[in-house]
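Re: your question about 3-keto-5-aminohexanoate cleavage protein

S., sorry for the slow reply, the queue was backed up all week. Below is exactly what I fed in.
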Amino acid sequence: MDKIIISCAVTGSIHTPSMSPHLPVTAEDIADQAVAAAEAGAAVLHLHARNPADGRPSQDPALFAAFLPAIRDRSDAIINITTGGGLGMSLDERLAPAKWAAPEIASLNMGSLNFNISGAAARVPQFRHDWERPYLEMTRDFILSNTFAQIERGLTELGALGTRFEYECYDVGHLYNLAHFVDRGLVQPPFFVQAIFGILGGIGADHANLMHMKATADRLFGRDYRLSVLAAGRHQMPFVTMGAILGANVRVGLEDSLYISRGRLATSNAEQVAKIRRILDELSLDVATPDEAREMLQTKGAGNVAF
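Result:
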């Protein structure tokens, strides 16, 4: 079995500042938490940016420029920049930071879906910022758009920069969408497939679904792909542990869950990374270093980015 790649999704665009005081918002906080996660064992850092004034998700390349060099200088982790951005953004906005930074990896959603996180609003007793409640509640009537034309544009524009992809698959059909682009010769192996469970509108966080997603990916991609697993909220640790047992890579981080255990908020991304690292150690599963992950995913290397 290959070594396990730990990815850490540091802040994301789903959780809002009122949900946890530990969610990083400023450039300094994002950089510090990213570096600490790398020190705890994360080989890949999946990064979003936020407006430091109110924590609103932003794809302004200038905000990424405020923390990417610091992370690069203080760690050797692979930097993975989102193209999902924040909910409701245009494709131009979503692609802008990755086109500016030309990272080793960028995330790429592999299909449109209903993306409903409105239920989170009812669990927050008081919001600190006016944008938070409407941002969550609007998702009752929201489609996260990732058409074939949009996906192709991401593949071609970022692929021309030498960037490889974390193919985010929220349902079984998204695996077939990826296979479509493989058949057309627009993407080359190894495919880093991130199977995502537990978002309302995507595939549910049932263990049988993980087995089904893996079996489907095995059938479609054979030995040409690397599976990674993440699950939202309370499903995070059990699901990624099961994925690792099955030979998959794992993703944790405050983008995916704000908690470290039942009822207890994680104080940092590094705390979650350290926990999954302990679990993997107990299972006698070896964790990949950043350079080992680069070899496994065949990225262009940290010296070939634009920041």
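The first strand starts at residue 6 and ends at 9. The CA atoms of residues 65 and 280 lie 33 Å apart.

Happy to talk it through on Thursday.
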